[in-house]
Specification:
Length: 305
């Protein structure tokens, strides 16, 4: 089923491309498509990612065109197999200049120049491409920062709540029904949450005024969200410990009461011990208590935005 949600970043990307194409046509660009490509590339979720994308484009174009012009000056009537040698030179030059991130684009630009009509002006092509791409990059950065920068704070809070709400079901399966749940989906959601937190930590303050105070507030908020994530990780570790037990001991009355407070139905035979030792009962209730404690702490900490 196709997604029908029209996100703000989608709208901003379309606006940035349209503006970039408009600006480069004003100067009579022979290849305005590069302005559109630059605008698309720079429309990242965070300013840090956008700046890195811009540096990749500028460095890649500059290195690719520069090396291609030198290559064609030395080998004006080159054979195609020499392009492979040129690619090696491009990669070595990028590595030497600490521009490893720009290697793929530099190679693409190098091949593009080598495959041009021999009568073409390679240097003019490079300058035009660099100018047009720069217009697209700058336009996208302005649109991305100026129009409600991306903020996934509410998404993270909702993810924290959603993942926390999975635990009563897992506990019902493992502790009360004495079965072993599949934790694969839980671990995947935790990895997704970690990625969203990394994005949030790289986001700039929402406005340019009072930037220092807002930067400190963002840092404190990121630390708070990381604390909530750590509680989820602790709960997951305790749940994994329960699932690694070979036996299914009964929970204590105190832990049963806490499970009931989560809305779980306690079976009548819950206190009947199966094939387990007293030490198993102690271990299960130790991990279960730790999990429920962390669950309670997270419930107090994670306040919806």
């Amino acid at each position: 089923m196709l997604r029908r949600h029209l996100g703000l970043r989608t709208v901003k990307t379309g606006l940035a491309v349209a503006l970039a194409l408009f600006f480069v046509t004003l100067r009579g660009s022979p290849a305005p498509i590069f302005a559109g490509i630059g605008a698309i590339v720079a429309m990242s979720r965070t300013l840090k990612d956008a700046v890195r994308a811009c540096l990749t484009q500028l460095a890649g174009i500059t290195c690719g065109v520069g090396i291609a012009c030198l290559f064609l000056a030395v080998f004006p009537d080159f054979k195609f197999f020499l392009v492979g040698v040129g690619i090696i030179l491009v990669i070595l030059c990028c590595n030497a200049l600490k521009l490893d991130f720009a290697v793929p684009l530099s190679c693409i630009v190098f091949v593009s120049v080598c495959m041009m009509d021999p009568e073409s002006d390679y240097l003019l092509y490079g300058v035009n491409r660099l100018l047009d791409t720069s217009v697209g990059l700058v336009t996208a950065l302005a649109v991305n920062v100026g129009i409600k920068p991306y903020n996934n704070r509410a998404r993270i809070s909702n993810m924290l709540t959603h993942i926390q709400q999975l635990f009563p079901g897992y506990l019902d399966t493992r502790v009360l029904r004495r079965q072993y749940p599949d934790l694969g989906a839980l671990h995947q959601k935790l990895r997704t949450l970690d990625g969203e937190l990394s994005v949030f930590e790289k986001q700039p303050p929402p406005s340019l005024s009072h930037r220092r105070a807002q930067r400190e507030a963002r840092r404190d908020d990121a630390a708070y969200l990381r604390g909530c994530q750590q509680l989820l990780s602790k709960m997951t570790d305790e749940l994994s410990a329960l699932c690694n037990m070979d036996s299914s001991p009964p929970p204590s009355p105190e832990n049963c009461a806490r499970l009931a407070a989560l809305g779980l139905s306690i079976p009548e035979n819950v206190y009947e011990a199966g094939k387990c030792e007293e030490a198993d009962v102690t271990v299960l209730n130790f991990h279960l208590k730790n999990l429920l404690d962390a669950y309670g702490f997270l419930s107090d900490l994670n306040q919806p935005v």
